[in-house]
Amino acid sequence: MMKTRKGYPVYPLTNAQKFHLFYMDFCPKKEVLNIGTSLTIQVELDWEVLKQSIYEAIDRCECMRLRFAKDKDGTWYQYVVEKEEREIEYVDFRDKSMEEAEAEMRRWTAVPFAREDSPMNRIVMISTSDGYNGVYLLVDHMTMDAQSLICFMSDAIQIYCNKVYEGIDYPKPMASYIEQLQKDLAYEAGSKAQKRDAEWFEKLIEESEPIYNGINGPGQLEMAREKTGNPNLRAALNVSDSVDSELDVFHLEEEPTQRLMQFCEEYHVSLVCLLLMGLRTYYQKMNGNDDVSINTAIARRATLKEKKSGGTRIHSFPFRTIISEDKTFIQGIYEIRDKQNEMFRHASYNPVAYFAHRGKVFPTEPGYTYEPMSLTYQPMTLKEKGLDRLGDITYKTKWYPNGATTQAMYLTVMHRPDDNGLDFSFEHQVKAVSRKELEYLYYYLCKIMFKGIENPDLSVGEIIKLI
Asked: Which residue, 293, 296, 13, 51, is CA-closest to 141?
C-alpha cells in the first residue's frame, strides 16, 4: 500500500470517487468525468488582480490541488500538493461570435485530464463579444461536484472584489478537504454508522423488485421481455450502444418558477419533492404503473464544513415510490418528503454497494435497469454567494457538456442567475433519447406540477386525466 507520493501523504478514494471510477471504466470516452462551466460579468476586469485572486482561491481550496496516483496493484490513491504554480491562460473571444466562443469552450470540455500525478482542473480567463468578462473552469468530477465548483468560483470572485472595491469583506476561510476526507474514510472503515446504513438500504432493496418505466411507455420493457423470453421481467435496457451525448436546456420563466417556490414554502417541502412528484406522475401516466423508480443525487453537505470543504460528495441512489392514483397530489408529495428525509439519514452508504446488493437480490442481464433517468436539483447559485453585494452588476453562468454520458438521460435543474427562473438541463445519449421526446416529457412535467400546485387535493388519477 502506498504511504506517500512525492513527499505528500496519500489517502484511499472515497465511495463517491469510486462511483465515478466505476462508470468511467465502462465508458470509452474518458472525458465523461469533465465538468465545464463559465462565469462572466458585464464589467471590465483587472486581469492581473483576477489572476492573483484565482491563485489565492486555489491556495484556500485543497481539492483544486488534488492529484491521483496508482500503485502497482492498480489501486488508485489521492494526495494534495502544496502549491499550484501553473500559468492561468487568457483567451480573447471578442472577435468571435458567441456561438463560436461556446463551440470552443465545448471543445475544451471534451478533453480528458491525464489521470496520474497531474492537475485535475483548467482555468482560463475569457472576454466575449457581448461585453462580458470572466472565467472558464474545467474540473474533473472526482475532485469536485457542482456545489464545490460554485463555492470555489464564488471564493475567487469575492477575493477579487475585496481587492478592487471598497467595503467588500475578504471571504471567510474554506474548510479542509483532507479533514473531511479522513472523516469519510473513518465512516467507510466499518463504523457503526456504516453498518446501520447498510442494514437500512439492504432491507429497502429486499422489500420487493422495482419495475422499469419508459419515457414513451412500456415499449422497452416489452422488448426486453420478448428478448429474454421472460414475460414477468421487470428490468429493461435503456442505454444505446453509443455514449455520445447532447445537452438540451428548457427554460422556465421567473413568474411560474416563483409559483413553484411559493408552493414549496407554503407546504414546507423542497423543490426536489415537487420535481420528483412531477416526474414519477409523468411515468405513471405513460406506463400505467403506480410503482416508479428514478435515480436521485444527494449532495451530502449538511454541515458548514461539508459545504465548504470542496471535493465530490454526491451519492446517487434509486428513489422508488408506489403512489396509487386515488392518493392526492399533496399526499404523494408528503410521502416523497418523508422517504427522502429517511434516505438522507443513511446517504453515506456506498452507491456501488447498493447496486451490487440489488443485483444479487434481483439478478438481471448486464446493463438492464429499473430507472429511466437521474435527477439532480442544484439549489445553490452565486446570487446568494456574495455577488448580490455588487449592486446591479449582471452576470452569466453557463455549463458545457463534455459530449459523453453512460446514462440514457440525466436531468439537472438549476436557477438562472439573471432572473432566478429554472433551467432544466437534460444531458442524454443522442441515440437513446431524442430532443422531441424530451420536449414532450418537459411539457407534461410542467403541466403536472402546475395542475398539482393549483389543486393539491386533486387525486393523481384526476391530474393524469386532466392533462
From this structure: 13
Taking residue 438's Cβ as centre, other Cβ atoms within 10 Å add up to 20
State how far the Cα of 330 lies from the Cα of 455, in Å rounded to an integer: 9
- The terminus-to-terminus CA distance of the chain in angstroms comes to 59
* Mean pLDDT comparison of 13-27, 154-168, 345-359, highest-scoring range: 345-359
Give the residue among 426, 405, 437 at the shortest CA–CA distance from 220. Answer: 437
Distance between CA atoms of residues 436 and 90, nearest Å: 38
What would the grid cell of residue 239 be? Answer: 442505454
DSSP line for 47-59: HHHHHHHHHHHHH
Q: What is the radius of gyration, based on Cα positions, of the chain?
A: 23
Q: CA 360, CA 358: separation in Å to the nearest integer?
A: 5
List all residues 6 or more positions away from 137 whose beta carbon is below 8 Å from its beta carbon: 36, 37, 38, 39, 121, 122, 123, 149, 152, 153
Q: Enter the pTM of the model.
A: 0.93
Q: Give whole-number Cα distances, 305 to 181, 188, 315, in Å.
A: 11, 19, 18
One-letter amino acid identity for 390? L
Task: Dump pLDDT digits (tens) for 135-183.
Answer: 999 999 999 999 999 899 989 988 998 999 888 889 999 999 999 999 9
Short-list 417, 406, 439, 435, CA closest to 23: 406
**DSSP secondary structure code for residue 61 in this structure:** -
Per DSSP, the three-state class of 4 is strand
At residue 123, what is the residue type?
I
Which residues are registered as beta bridge partners of 424? 250, 413
Q: What is the pLDDT of residues 114-123, one digit of tens each?
A: 999 999 999 9
Q: Which grid cell sits at 459?
A: 387525486
Alpha carbon 95 to its chain's center: 33
Backbone CA torsion sign across 207, 464, 333, 329: negative
